[in-house]
Amino acid sequence: MAFLFHFSPTIFSILFLMITSCIASNDQSPKPYVVYMGSPLNSSGDSAEIEELLHIRILSSIIPSEESERISVRHSYHHAYRGFCALLTKQEATLLSGHEEVVSVFPDPILELHTTRSWDFLGATVGSYYSTYNHSSSSNYDVIIGVIDTGIWPESPGFDDQHIGEVPSRWKGVCMEGVDFHKSNCNRKLIGARFYNIDDQDSDITEIPKSAKIPSRPPNGTPRDKVGHGTHTASIAAGAFVPNATYHGLASGIARGGSPFARIATYKACSEGYCQGSAILKAIDDAIKDGVDIISISVGKSFVFQTDFKDDPIAIGAFHAAERGVGVVCSGGNEGPDSYTVTNSAPWILTVAASTIDRNFQVNVVLGNNVSLKGTGISFYTIGRSKTYPLAFGENIPFHPSLTFQARNCMPGSLDAKRVAGKIVVCMNDGWSVSREIKKLVLQDGNAKGLILIDEKEKSSPFDSGNFPFAEFGKLAGAQILQYINSSRNPLATIFPVNEIRRFKPAPVVADFSSRGPASLTENILKPDITAPGVGILSAMIPNTDDKKSSLFGITSGTSMACPHVSGAMAFIKSIHPTWSFSMIKSAIMTTATISNNARKPLSNTSNLHASPHEIGAGELNPIKALNPGLVFETTMNDYYNFLCYYGYNEKELRLIVSNKKNFICPTNTRTTYKKELISHINYPSISIEKLEQNRILRVKRVATNVGNSPNATYTSSIFGPPGLIVRVSPSKIAFVKGIKKASFEVSFDGNKASKGYNFGVITWFDGSHDKVHMVFAVNVE
Questions:
Q1: Is the CB of residue 667 less than 8 Å from the CB of residue 173?
Q2: Which N-terminal stretch is annotated as signal sequence (predicted)?
Q3: How far apart, in Å, are the Cα atoms of 633 and each of 322, 336, 718, 738, 753?
Q4: What are the tens digits of pLDDT across the range 370-412?
Q5: Are 342 and 562 in contact (CB under 8 A)?
Q6: Closest Cα to residue 770, out of 591, 521, 568?
Q7: What's the CA gap between 643 and 621, in Å, rounded?
Q8: Mind spelling out the 3-state secondary structure of 225-250?
Q9: What is the SS3 assignment for 251-262?
Q10: Residue 757 in contact with residue 500, Cβ under 8 Å?
């Protein structure tokens, strides 16, 4: 008989008290801290040896001599930015934060890991993608994507280098070897591989104090992916063409990345389930030094633990990447559908939300009364006819009467294993946060024959249950199932294998899990920026070495999958427009985004409501349209420096952070009352206003750059806004002539008659030939 673990509330309380008391007692015990010291002293970066010696000296000044073994650095940052990671007590961290060369000191954070049909769905079909644009003529410009993730499985066919030229001479990276990874695993496609351990050190440090301890690298380090997440994201971004790709017969087609001829460099800074902030910071520094063009990071903090930008490893690294001309694309998080959950929201990051594509994985369930219901899920549990089994509701078979609610949700330890065995069990998803995977494992442990999940929020992401029968339903179908169970003496059910439904409508739909704006750190920047496919995405996966029938591909969901779609699209655009800056490409992607679905209706969410910019940003990614946007809104480093001023950083911090303009001075003609309001004025491709009082009119300036084929062009504006919010554009027309590529305009917002709360709309510019240039806005009227 299966044994299901049971934890009483009393035990949970005792464990909580033990944990909290342990944390309190160890408040002054050493733990990893990141010390951020701003920009390097010179534009080419500082010497690794000199910087590490400086870090050792700083540590020696605050760590007691009797604890000299702690005078060592775990990671040293010295190329695009300065700093290090070391073991410190809270008191030592506080002392260091006052050091004249230190911007911030913060605990080393733990971050979370946040494709056949998807690229066709975005409009980038094989024909239009490569025949419309003579890619061979631009292939001399080799775009390099740095993927910071869980590593890579180099044998995947998506990383084959058969049809790609020699490695660019500007590449300065390395292919690190490990116990199961050799230099021969790198090739002309996978051109670089690094991995990071807690005690990772620069091997060329030769002169250090005798008191310092430099740990050796653990012998089991490797760039090889043991999780699958990094392999999956890398192949979505830049995987080579792989014909006949499939996941056990599903989603068959040609697998490829967004930029199949781009190079990949992998930076393994994450392991199973988590990533260390200090390692990510090191990986970004290395990637910039190695020569990547774009950095793709499908990782982030939970919105619950968001901190200031100068205490966020990804925000720090991405800022200095922007200074060096390297674009950083990040996932927005998987904590939707609530508001204020989006992460990676710094304006110099391109933040990506997730949406569905026009493919659905349907599972039919037939009840004993011959009622057939259509659910969702992915399972490969039988070859041949499906069988009928007794049907039970978890709430009716608890381990103990006091656990009825827990049993309703099939929580561990809540079900009677004897009554679970041999049945298909119906579980709800309306209680404590217990994943679908956990519910499945609970039932498998009890020898159940299948799982029917009822989720009133109707999750958009299909769950892959492997060989265990599974089907998921929403509120209406769930009510039918429960009514049947309650009205039948001998309820029965059959779960059939999955069917793939293509050309599914409506699509795209914002994924239920996709984190939403506004951004909690500043609502004056609209986040997320863009939406891309992130539900049921087929891409490369690490094989299961214990299963001879293991697939080389997998189907997964998350903003982790949406992020590399945008990274790949950016690489594709960069290969056609090599002189465009990261922010120009970002603007092109945002202002040409699709705002309607394949049913020719506005994009929606899983509640069938119109999706707002806080859910989809500017809209759905459209790589082909982004190649010819007509106008772009380029956000310069000066805009980002002004952002830091308006956000409230002091002169000392700015002096250390800003590298290109050490003499930079914050604008002085600003009223303190409305200082953060000025963030809305930086030249961003969207507009967000955190607070517009009804008795005020707020004006926002933007500068457009003509990147169209004709130097002579006139654009006329149109406004689509909510009733009551008065929006005016001045001038309503902007003209470009030869030699003048930039034009300014002002947008005024009058909320006197507007509804309170957020008001959304869009300003469009049209020259008669290009597709319309869209600039979305979000204005919170109080």
A1: no
A2: 1-24
A3: 16, 29, 17, 19, 30
A4: 999 999 999 876 544 679 999 999 999 999 999 999 999 999 9
A5: no
A6: 591
A7: 26
A8: CCCCHHHHHHHHHHCCCEEEEEECCE
A9: EEEEECCCCCCC
A10: no
| Residue of 46, 120, 142, 149 with catalytic role | 149
**Of 176, 203, 175, residue with least CA distance to 263:** 175
In the chain the domains, ranked by start, together with CATH numbers, are 31-107 (3.30.70.80), 111-358+508-626 (3.40.50.200), 361-502 (3.50.30.30), 631-781 (2.60.40.2310)
Catalytic residue (one of 104, 355, 560, 688): 560
Amino acid identity, position 115: T
Closest-CA residue to 684 (of 612, 636, 623): 636
CA distance 497 to 363: 6
Where residue 562 falls (left for φ over 0; alpha for ψ -120 to 50; beta otherwise) is alpha
* Rounded CA separation 63/57 (Å): 10
Q: Are the CB atoms for 758 and 670 separated by under 8 Å?
A: no
Report the half-sphere exposure of 446 (CA within 13 A, side-chain side): 32
* Pairwise CA distance, residues 69 & 85, whole Å: 15
- Separation between Cα atoms, residue 747 and residue 697, nearest integer Å: 10
Which of 229, 577, 681, 774 is flagged as catalytic?
229
- Give the Cα separation of 87 and 30 in Å (integer): 5
| Residue 168 to residue 326: CA distance in whole angstroms | 17
Query: Is residue 263 within 8 Å of 191, Cβ to Cβ?
Result: yes
* Separation between Cα atoms, residue 539 and residue 555, nearest integer Å: 7
Give whole-number Cα distances, 682 to 183, 317, 351, 582, in Å. 45, 21, 17, 16
Q: If pLDDT is split at 50, 70 and 90, which confidence band does 301 have?
A: confident
Report the side by side order of strands in the sheet with 697-706: 631-632, 697-706, 742-750, 726-730
CA distance 218 to 78: 23
pTM value is 0.89
Known catalytic residue: 79?
no
Calpha distance 683→680 (Å, rounded): 8
Cis peptide, bond prior to residue 731, ω within 30 of zero: yes
- As beta bridge partners, residue 192 has 265
Find residue 271's DSSP bridge partners: 274
CA 726 to chain centre: 35
Other CB atoms within 10 Å distance of the CB of residue 74? 23
pLDDT value of residue 768: 87
Whether 229 is catalytic is yes
Render pLDDT for 310-356 as a digit per residue (tens, 0 to 9): 999 999 999 999 999 999 999 999 999 999 999 999 999 999 999 99
d(CA 708, CA 629): 7
